[in-house]
What we know:
Helix content is 21%, strand content 46%. By secondary structure, it is an alpha+beta fold. The chain has a domain at 21-45 and 63-77. A 4-stranded antiparallel beta sheet has the order 2-3-1-4, with helices on one face.
Amino acid sequence: MGMVVMTYKVNPDSDLENVDTDAIAETIATLRNDDYDIQAIETKPLAFGLKFVQVHVKMNDGEGLADAFEAKMAEIHGVGEIEVLSMGLI
């Protein structure tokens, strides 16, 4: 089985005020386990003082693993839209 590297853009929930993207990044870091090797998490500027979290993660190329990781991130308080920026096999 191969490995896949994915880069996600995690936007704050637009329905909430004062979402702490640093807290979101810290919580995403706790998702690291045997299935998900989180290689980098960065908080980046979006626009007008807003920020988003960029996540680089390596995982097995198994069925449903990417969807499960996205679902875990979506459960974090303050997370809005999650977008896949890139995906590649290694």
